[in-house]
Amino acid sequence: MPKFLGRADVVVDGETLLSGDDTTLDPGGFKRDPVKGSKVFGYREEIMEAVLEVNVAIGADYSSDRLNAITNATINFVADTGQTWVMRSAFSADPGKINQKDGKAKHVFKSPPAEEAS
After folding, report:
1. pLDDT in tens, 86-117
2. Sign of the dihedral defined by the CA atoms of residues 85, 90, 94, 96, in that order
3. Which of 114, 78, 102 is CA-nearest to residue 6?
4. Which residues share a beta bridge with 106?
5. What is the largest CA-CA distance in the chain?
6. Rounded CA gap, 115 and 11, in Å?
7. Neighbours of 5 (CB within 10 A)
8. 20: pLDDT confidence band, cut at 50, 70 and 90?
9. For the segment 34-54, what is each residue's pLDDT rounded down to a tens digit?
10. How far apart are the C-alpha atoms of 81 and 60, rounded to whole Å?
């Protein structure tokens, strides 16, 4: 029976974040738009960055300053199905937003397009 994605770990420079099941990864890559005139002539490509949105559980060792200061990290999105996507030269894109009700902080990281590792 096939297994499907259910969990993923987010690892920043070797440290596994306390992320929940609401993490999203847009691996980026090429966005293609049609080039048109009297008909569709073809397409043009635009490079899109990878975007990782992760809600980190706030424990005693959580530091928003540390995560907000990230400017050149390697981030791995490790799926329980065996795939791993690697974000190189990743940086914190927005200050973390702390949600007291959920006890989590939302952090957004961006990088050049992520690479799927085997």
Report:
1. 999 999 999 999 999 999 999 999 999 999 99
2. positive
3. 78
4. 55, 97
5. 62
6. 15
7. 10
8. confident
9. 999 999 999 999 999 999 999
10. 31
> How is 2-38 classified by DSSP, letter by letter?
------EEEEETTEEP-B-TT-EEE--EEEEEEEESS
User: How many whole angstroms separate alpha carbon 64 and alpha carbon 32?
Assistant: 36
Amino acid, single-letter form, for residue 18:
L
Burial class (CB in 10 A: 0-12, 13-18, 19+), 1: exposed
Pick from 18, 15, 30, 24: nearest CA to 109: 24
CATH number of 8-117: 2.40.30
CA 81 from chain centre, in angstroms, equals 17
